[in-house]
Design goal:
Helix content: 55-70%
Shape: elongated
Distance between the termini: 61 Å
Structural class: mainly alpha
Mean pLDDT: 79
Number of helices: 9
Order of helices and strands: EEEHHHHHHHHH
Strand order of the largest sheet: 1-2-3
Largest sheet: 3 strands, antiparallel
Strand content: 5-15%
Number of strands: 3
Radius of gyration: 29 Å
Amino acid sequence: MEAQPTHQQPITVGDAKKNGGFRGYVDYAVTLRLKGQEIVVRRRYSQFLWLRACLKKNWPGFPIPSLPPKTRLSFSVTTRFLPDRQMGLERFLTIILYDKYLSKSKAFKMFLTEKGIFETKRKEIDDEKDIDELDIVNKRYSSDVKELVTFSNAGTDASGDNTIIDNFSSYLAGYVKDLEKFLSYGVDAKTKLSESLKAMEALLKSMDELTGTEKNEKSLPNGHIRFDLSVSAINWTKLTKSRPDSYERVVRGFYEDYIYVQGMVEAIEYRKSMAYQYKKCNKLNEKYTAKPPKEGTGIRKQQENRDRLRLVTTALAVIDKLIISYHAPQMFKNIQIRFETSMAQFAKDQALNNEESLRFWTGLKNELLMAK
């Protein structure tokens, strides 16, 4: 996952449209902007699910970012903090775009660019012959994932366990919980800010509308002050445009971390399933060693298990090396870059907002003092 400034959005998801009546479906406009070009396609949620399934199948052991739930009826942190599912879909695609391996996927490229015959192209990909996941890990990863060549063996022990990955897994579980709390607080802060901004806007509007009653002087009480806050209302509108956006950018950056870490948790679960295969084959191998088969069928099964054990052992070492030497460092690097970028942008936004706020309140004070 290649990091990028959180305020840049080469991919956007929006313009949700309902198709087909009550039992229809919703699709979204997916816009890709790269090198001065803009490509817009419409995709359904089920097609996002298909893309993720393709990536998991073709890149076993890679952290594939998670998707927001299909409906808001599903209880999860996403339904609590994500005001719109579109942001989740957008960050999902953005992470893949900046991953130098996942972004090369045929399914991903077709998902972003194919306009007219998507379902036909999708079927062609589905009909392609599946490659055994052990062949993908042992052959393609060893040749294509260049980072694996530069690191020594990750150190999986004879039982198939790896203390480093176990500790990393525990860390991820805690980090996911911390992200959930932070995102909930972030959205609450954004919601409260938006509500207070709207309340102030409504107050200014009400005060400004008092000028309408001044047409009938007899209806005014003694000591009435004429208010004309139209200028302040305009200034307030300008001020409020950027303030929620600064919180939105922070939430968006940390949400990207959240769905990527969830993908990392799945990658470790895949590693655990590989370790289970290893232990199963190893146990069967020990059984054959203790009591060698004498018949042809037994001998053949013993050889098949040995071959399987050899492939699984190699694949487990590759997956461990991939997680420890590539995915984990890449994750920490991008979290740090995204955090620094988000905080720097947030501080810049707040400084600008403070200047605009000072101008607004000073102008409002002057208008009230000038009221007649």
